Amino acid sequence: MRYRYSIRRALQELWHPRPWDRAKWRWQRMNRGWADRDVWSMDSYAAKLIAEMSRALRNSPTAGYPCRCASVSPALQIHAHGTSEDHDCLQRWNGALDSIASGLEEYASREGVRDGETHDQWRQRQEDAVEAGRGALRMMADELPDMWD
Predict the structure, then answer these.
(1) Is the predicted pLDDT of residue 55 greater than 90, yes or no?
(2) 104, 122, 117: which is closest to 43 by C-alpha?
């Protein structure tokens, strides 16, 4: 009896995650946008996802910037394209998206202790990454109504 358990355990360790589990997670992500596996580390999963989406929005050829960014009214904005104000607004918007993405990427890339790093240095690096993630989420909350393409 014990022998069968050992073989099964060894096969599980060699073949983990199992192909049918990977297929199940893909199906779940396609149907509901997240998988059961993603819940285990929801913070890192969401940080990576939002960072990638912010980069995609920034690099989208069809994306512009929020109308509230410019000092002129939206009705006059149509005739103002190509002005320096237009360029400044686009730069500020791209900077905001970059800040959101880089803060969340820093948060998501937290890892264990590096070679030669003391526990205090590791703790400080972790706290800095958490604060960068919080700052990115605060900025995202401010810009949330405008984060669409």
Answers:
(1) yes
(2) 104
The conformation of residue 113, written as its DSSP 8-state character, comes to P
The structure tokens listed for 100 are 């959101």
**Neighbour tally for 82: CB within 10 Å:** 8
Integer Cα distance of 25 and 37 in angstroms? 7
Closest CA to 68 of 99, 93, 50, 98: 93
CB count in 10 Å sphere of residue 51: 23
Q: What angle do CA 137, 110, 99 make, to 5 degrees?
A: 35
Q: Domain locations in the chain? A: 1-33, 38-146
Which residue has tokens 């912010």?
Answer: 54
Q: How far apart are CA 79 and CA 148, in angstroms?
A: 22
User: What's the mean per-residue pLDDT of the chain?
Assistant: 82
CA pair distance 100, 53, nearest whole angstrom:
10
Distance, in Å, from the CA atom of 67 to the CA atom of 54, rounded to the nearest integer, reads 18
- Residue 28, pLDDT > 80, answer yes
